[in-house]
TrEMBL record, chain A:
Matches recorded under InterPro entries: AA_ABC_transptr_permease_3TM (IPR010065), ArtM/GltK/GlnP/TcyL/YhdX-like (IPR043429), MetI-like (IPR000515), MetI-like_sf (IPR035906)
Keyword Membrane: yes
Family of this protein: Belongs to the binding-protein-dependent transport system permease family. HisMQ subfamily.
Topology in the lipid bilayer: Multi-pass membrane protein
ABC transmembrane type-1 domain: residues covered: 159-355
Coarse class of the protein's main subcellular location: membrane
Transmembrane segments: 31-52, 97-117, 129-151, 163-183, 204-222, 234-254, 336-357
Keyword terms: Cell membrane, Membrane, Transmembrane, Transmembrane helix, Transport
Subcellular location: Cell inner membrane; Cell membrane
Gene3D superfamilies registered for this protein in UniProt: MetI-like
Record PROSITE patterns: ABC_TM1
Protein name: Amino acid ABC transporter permease
UniProtKB/TrEMBL annotation, chain B:
Keywords per UniProt: Signal, Transport
Biological process according to GO: amino acid transport
InterPro entries given in the database record: Bact_solute-bind_prot3 (IPR051455), SBP_3_CS (IPR018313), Solute-binding_3/MltF_N (IPR001638)
Short name of one Pfam family: SBP_bac_3
Taxonomic lineage from the root: Bacteria, Pseudomonadati, Pseudomonadota, Alphaproteobacteria, Rhodospirillales
Solute-binding protein family 3/N-terminal domain: residues covered: 36-266
Signal found in the keyword field: yes
Membership in a protein family: Belongs to the bacterial solute-binding protein 3 family.
UniProt protein name: Amino acid ABC transporter substrate-binding protein
Domain of life the protein comes from: Bacteria
Signal peptide: 1-24
Transmembrane portions of the chain: none
Length: 367, 340
């Protein structure tokens, strides 16, 4: 079907006429749709004004408790006064430029890697960017060299921690999940069984259990004096968990690739890995972009669970700020609304990027 | 059979960990070598341990760690904090991840005897109470028959509540809400008649969350004993002694009237033998603990005495009076073993 066939006849008449005809066609198309339209408008009129009144009209940005007590609306002053605590957690105050810089570098690398779809010139730079960038981020966060003071990672927190946990999670869970998916399809019984058992066991327990085991049980089984870092344990837990879900997503993609494609690879005398890399995976992975991004979004939000093992991700630092002074505690709605806005922004960007990626990669199929 | 074997193996590992800690002096030497005290604290309990707007840990529990660091290392800031949840706290201590746990932990028999822990003192005496709106017209907890009670799940609070009502032959309807913000919101919106938690928590909820604090009151009955104190792993006697006497020195200093302000003057001029012993003018105490003689002087100089720490954290943040935590001479329970 060509694009022309779909497009409506060119609009005619004045703007008002067009608006009337558009709404007749789209909003008041029959009695049922008219009721739905009116109902929806009434609902929005009921919902939106009080939110605007609370969040904007009657709100204050003044970063003091006294200022907040004077207004009837939202106390954004809570966020304003505690912004650095919310963003960076308990990271030493004078050193907070380090997580800020690390976060900017990380965002830069991520954007650079994602942008490679549009600018093919960036493709060669992806691996060097990560290979150079990650150690720089690690040095900035930990310090201990180059005159930077050492900062234990029990002090890391806030947005940098959330971004680090989720981006490292994606980077490692993706290949691991891919291997598991291939393992599950394998003809070798040992590998197949191991993959199936792993995937089913991990999928059968909640992430909170994995984190809890990693944080509470696991240290007891180590010899004395050997402690594996709490953050590392959580990170590994997240990777293992996400990989199991991704494996099932990828399996769906692999099964959707027609049998003939595998046979085509064989007939060209390609090895298993060659045919996977050149023929099967490019098709399989493209098919499963939406569920893959779905997994990433859910993992990104799941990182907030690390709060149960005493790590302060972005949501955790909001809670930390609420408790920094008991007088702030009652402004928790504002705190959580702020966190929700940031989470939404990031998740929505991911969803938008996935839609873009799908469109870009389907170019070959469109006429 | 198999499950039993696995459980036994787990228990043995725990025991082995506890046993391996049992090398006297190991913890203290370790701290001196690494240059800081690793201290487990609450993830956020105002007045006890909470991060301030600059992300620095503050509170009466935090001050215990600062005091120990001042005594052992000479600098109250030589502390690294590990925020811990209630479920993690003992594992962190048993596995050696932290040197001391100062996290509003109630001292009980099983914890002290079975978990391989040693409580080194009590830095806060708390107890569970009831918060009610005055409009309810109740003057005593014995009149609460049939009340709906807001409570957080999975805590000793919930068990104490059930015990108390059963013992009194009264009925109640629990409204169990996990999140403290939601629980208090439910209480102040009138979903339940009574809110119950530790008295310190009730006082802070009343002053900070209520629209008008005067409309609410805490009932006089305290239904449980919650002696909260710092804990170390069992087995290293020298380390538990240091921790115990660092805390004791803070209380002793208050008893003797030694404050952050006057400690230098006291050290130079006081003729009171008790003060001279505490501040190392007459030597012996530091040596006995494996520290230098100025250990207690540094605690008071850097952190202050117990009363100062209490004022700065608990009174200032939560608006709580000393109550049970006053010195024994003022009718409270804080009674320092003599430093001599």
């Amino acid at each position: 079907m060509s694009d022309n066939a779909k497009s409506p006849p060119l609009p005619t008449g004045t703007f008002a006429e067009r608006a009337v005809s558009w709404s007749k066609k789209n909003l008041f198309d029959g009695w049922f749709n008219s009721i739905l339209t009116i109902g929806a408008i009434a609902f929005l009129l009921w919902l939106i004004p009080p939110i605007i009144e609370w969040g904007i009209v009657n709100a204050t940005l003044e970063p003091t408790i006294e200022g907040c007590k004077e207004v009837s609306g939202a106390c954004w002053g809570f966020v304003n006064a505690n912004l650095r605590l919310i963003l960076f957690g308990t990271y030493p105050y004078d050193e907070q430029w380090r997580p800020l810089l690390a976060m900017i570098i990380l965002m830069g690398i991520i954007c650079g890697s994602l942008g490679a779809v549009k600018y093919p010139g960036l493709r060669k730079a992806i691996i060097p960017m990560w290979v150079i960038g990650v150690p720089i981020i690690a040095i900035l966060m930990w310090g201990g060299v180059l005159g930077l003071t050492y900062v234990q990672n029990s002090y890391w927190g806030g947005l940098p921690l959330t971004l680090i946990l989720s981006s490292i999670g994606v980077i490692f869970a993706f290949p691991f999940g891919l291997l598991l998916a291939l393992g599950r399809q394998s003809h070798m019984p040992a590998i197949k069984t191991m993959s199936v058992v792993y995937i089913e066991v991990i999928r059968g327990v909640p992430l909170i259990t994995v984190l809890f085991m990693a944080s509470v049980m696991f240290p007891l089984f180590l010899p004395d004096g050997v402690t594996i870092d709490k953050l590392l344990r959580a990170q590994i837990g997240i990777i293992l968990f996400t990989a199991a879900y991704l494996a099932e997503v990828f399996r769906g993609g692999l099964q959707a690739v027609p049998r003939g494609q595998f046979e085509a690879g064989d007939s060209l005398a390609l090895s298993y890995w060659q045919s996977m890399r050149l023929i099967i995976l490019p098709q399989a992975l493209r098919l499963v972009i939406p569920p893959t991004v779905n997994s990433f979004i859910s993992m990104f939000k799941d990182t907030t669970l690390v709060v149960i093992i005493g790590l302060f991700d972005f949501l955790g630092t909001v809670k930390l700020a609420l408790r920094s002074d008991p007088a702030w505690t009652k402004y928790y709605v504002e705190g959580y609304a702020f966190a929700a806005a940031i989470f939404f922004l990031i998740c929505f960007s991911m969803a938008k990027y996935s839609a873009y990626l799908e469109k870009e990669l389907r170019k070959g199929e469109r006429r | 059979m198999k499950i039993k074997t696995i459980l036994a193996a787990g228990a043995m590992t725990v025991a082995a960990v506890a046993a391996q800690n049992a090398q006297a002096g190991a913890v203290l030497d370790g701290i001196k070598a690494k240059g800081f005290v690793q201290c487990g604290v609450n993830t956020g309990l105002p007045g006890f341990s909470a991060a301030n707007a600059e992300g620095k840990w503050e509170g009466i529990d935090v001050d215990v760690c600062r005091a120990i660091a001042a005594a052992v290392l000479g600098d109250a800031n030589s502390v690294q904090y590990t925020p811990l949840t209630a479920a993690q706290r003992f594992t962190a201590l048993q596995s050696g991840e932290i040197d001391i746990l100062s996290r509003n932990t109630t001292a009980t028999t099983t914890r002290d005897a079975k978990l391989g822990l040693t409580f080194v003192g009590i830095n806060y005496y708390d107890g569970q109470g009831f918060l009610i709106p005055k409009a309810l017209g109740v003057k005593s907890a014995t009149e609460l028959d049939g009340a709906t009670v807001c409570v957080e799940p999975g805590t000793t609070t919930e068990l104490n509540l059930a015990d108390y009502f059963r013992a009194k032959g009264m009925s109640f309807e629990p409204v169990v809400i996990e999140n403290i913000n939601e629980a208090t919101a439910a209480f102040f919106s009138g979903r339940c008649d009574v809110y119950t938690t530790d008295a310190s928590g009730l006082a802070s909820i009343r002053t900070t969350m209520a629209e008008n604090p005067d409309d609410y009151m805490i009932l006089p009955e305290i239904i449980s004993k919650e002696p909260l104190g710092p804990v170390v792993a069992q087995g290293d006697e020298q380390w538990s002694d240091v921790a115990r006497w660092a805390l004791t020195a803070m209380v002793e200093a208050e008893e003797l009237g030694v404050t952050m302000e006057n400690v230098d003057d006291m050290k130079a001029n006081s003729t009171n033998p008790g003060i001279q012993r505490l501040l190392g003018v007459s030597p012996g105490m530091g040596e006995a603990l494996g520290l230098d003689e100025e250990w207690a002087y540094r605690i008071i100089k850097n952190v202050g005495n117990y009363g100062e720490s209490y004022e700065k954290n608990v009174t200032a943040k939560l608006g709580l009076e000393r109550g049970l935590n006053a010195l024994w001479t003022d009718g409270g329970l804080q009674y320092a073993w003599p430093v001599r």
